[in-house]
Specification:
This protein is of the alpha+beta class and 225 residues long. The protein has 2 domains: 3-65, Arc Repressor Mutant, subunit A (Orthogonal Bundle); 83-223, Beta-Lactamase (2-Layer Sandwich). The chain contains 10 helices and 7 strands. The strands form 2 sheets. A 5-stranded antiparallel beta sheet has the order 4-3-7-6-5, sandwiched between helices. Strands 1-2 form a two-stranded antiparallel sheet. β3 (112-118) and β4 form a beta hairpin. The two termini are 36 Å apart. Residues 119-212 form the Heat-inducible transcription repressor HrcA C-terminal domain. GO terms for molecular function: DNA binding. Keywords: Repressor, Stress response, Transcription, Transcription regulation. InterPro entries: GAF-like_dom_sf, HrcA, HrcA_C, WH-like_DNA-bd_sf, WH_DNA-bd_sf.
Length: 225
Amino acid sequence: MEPRTTGILKAVISEFIESGEPVSSEWLYEHHDFGIKPAMIRLELGGLTDKGYLVQPHTAAGRVPSDKGLAFFAKSAIEEDAPACGEELLGLFREQAWPEFLSEFSSELDILGAASVFPERAAYKSMLTNLVDHFDWPPSEIRDLVRDFENLDERLGKMGGAFQSDIQAFIGRKSPVTKSEHLAVIAGSYGVDGHRVFVCAIGPKRMDYKKTAKVMKGLKIASRK
C-alpha cells in the first residue's frame, strides 16, 4: 500500500475509534495534510472501500473501518509503535501476581484482561463489567456476551497452548478466544521465570489499539530481562 493511502486509512480508523462516526473526505482534508484535494481523497477512500478496508454505511455518509481495516491498523500498531508500560504494571507482571496484574492491566487499558499460565494451565481474568460498560446493548445480547465468557477459561487454555506468535490481533469472529463479532483481542505470549504466560486484552472493536500494543510490547521487553 502506498504511504499516502496508508496514512489516509490510519487517519480514518483513528478518528472512527475516537468518535464512532463515519469519516468524510472533507473532514480528512480539514484535519490532515495529505497534499491532495477532497476529490482525490474521495478517490483514495473509494479504493480502500473496494479493497475491503473501509465500509460506506450510507450513500451520502463517510467511511468506517471494516474488520480487515481494523486488523491492518492493529497489526501496524504492533509492528511500528514503541513499547510503553508503567512500572507498577511491570512490577506485578514480574512478581507473577496475576489477579493484581490483570486488575491494573484492565484499568489502564479500559478492557477486560485475561491470562493463562503454563504448564499449570491456570486461568485468570478481570471483571466482565470492564467490558460490558462499553456497550449499550439490550439484555438478550448482554446475556450472550456473558455466556461467551463462561467458556473463556477453556479457550484460553487451548489457545495459549498453541499460540506461536509474540503478539497478535484478532478482530470480530476471527478471534479464537471470543465468539462475539463486536469484540477485538490483542494477545501475547511471554516467558516469566520458567513459566509461559498467555495474556489477552479483550475490548470493543473501537478499543485503543495503539496504547494496548505499546503495553503488550512493554511486557515483552520485561519478560526478556
